[in-house]
Design goal:
359 residues; alpha/beta; Rossmann fold; 2 domains; 6-stranded mixed beta sheet; 13 strands; 42% helix
Length: 359
Amino acid sequence: MLIRKSVAALAISAMALAACSGSGSPGASGGAGSSAAAAGCKVGVAWATSQEERYKLRDEPAVKGAVEAGGGTYISGGDAQNKAEIQASQIATLLASNINVLVLNAVDPTAVLPSLQAAVDAGIPVIAYDRELESAKALFLTHDNVLVGHMIADEVTKVQPTGNYVIIKGDKTQTNPIFLRNGMEEILKPLTDAAKIKIVAEEFTPDWKAENAQTEMENILTAHPDVQAVLSENDNMATGVTAALNGNADGKVKIGGQDGDTFALNRVALGTQVVSVWKNSIELGQAAGKAALELCKTKDISKVTGATATKTTGGLASYSLLLKPIAITKDNLQVVLDANWITKDKLCKDVKAGAVKGC
């Protein structure tokens, strides 16, 4: 993948961002330097959805906190409810309010391009937040999703190195499912080539919805009742998969996901999900807030701290800033507790005391 960076480079970038953005609180300060640069800076943010718990609970407060701590003004476009036409209207409203920077979490990367171009034509720099946009003008800010996919497959194959596998992918209109699937393939290919693993089904999931994933998984199980593992491209869809498996109470089917959602981390503690790759969306939101403040001082996306020259999936020369994820399994649950990402009572709900570290 063209936007893939080395793990070492990602670690350096993440460390640099962490040093600037503070620890686990969504409202951590962006620093005095940003404050001086951002007086009068108006940052508009267009959110695709609040369907996943992370966006309203973690991402948005983190972006807002970093912008306001740096002296800027945060303006939300609202929840587009995964509808491109709603998002287009919201972006138009943001642009009309004379924002200085647009942070864009796109519903549909193609449908949103006219709105992006309207921002560019108005001289407003754009941050493509967590979802890639096919534009040389937008700074792509996300976690390394190829590495996320790699981690999901790696952890699941460690505990289930043979058998029938299912892959539940995200919405086919976006590029993140491609990045995640390519990362999975790095682990799966040697095993499928050796006939140790057979991928019996893989499906794209409209809007990444749990109910759609549940329907997909139920249909797959009808055709292939003997499934040993499911690689889900996020935790929300893993919830649907788990429901299709009647809770997977015995942990017989090895499930992997990502996002570090509360319910998924609890499943990891319970043993009904093997891994949730944690993409610290508080850190991501803080990084977006800091980048937006920098873009108020200079509109050049190449000057943003940590930005690296890269190419979009379609081959356009642009810049990206990727953070490093962490695979959370039953062996390192303390990591999310120490980061105040989740409370012990939620993590350990219904978990037998002492069954896993952290509970």
